[in-house]
Input
Amino acid sequence: MRTPEVKKFIDDHQDLFWYTPAPKNENVTDELLVEIMLNYGTWEQVHDLFKVMGLQTTANIFWGMKGRKKLNYFPEIYNYFDIYFKKYAS
Output
């Protein structure tokens, strides 16, 4: 179940979910939310995500996707946040 804060966060950043009809934005998975924000969000938007979801939760979602066959992160983004989360969320 989505918290009201996460729903508001998604609504506030609707432009990053341009391919999803507005009412269905709230239904994006946490994995997709983290992936989109880390790949395409500004630094301020990423920090807002950490405030809403929590740094540790975001890191766990990020690392939980490692086992997927195909990651959709840009290589430099993946490398940066892997190092960042190891330093600040371990």
